[in-house]
Predict the structure.
Amino acid sequence: MEIVTDYFAAPSDALAGLVLGEAAGPASRSLTTGQPLFDTVTLPAVEPFVMLGTLHEALSGRSYGECTAEARHGQVVAGRDEGPWVVSVSERLVEHLAAAAPAVLAGVAARWARSPELARLDPREAGTAVVALAGLAQRAREARHGVYCWTRLP
């Protein structure tokens, strides 16, 4: 059973938490515009706790323990007992992703893909995930939003 994960940008924890009322999470469409409620990137099975900790480690050169000890790393900002949950993504990871050049992202993706936590993912999927997260991080920074993960069990 793989975890379902959608990463998205939102202006605050409170607004990010509103996706709990939406069946499709942050990718749900607005009834008035038909547009997605939030800028969303779907990354099946890329969970926000260990996997993003190892990504942050690969990108920053800091230790895994330092990366996961950050206040916003994997913090549940909204959720129900059985899910879904909204989890914050470390602001430092978002900054690193937003600032990284494409060549840096490619190298990080290759290192990240070799981590044991990503054994299930094809290395190309890891590369696609890093580029997608970096794009979301860039757009979030431009809008002064945070990055979150809406996650649930299937």
Summary: The mean pLDDT is 93.
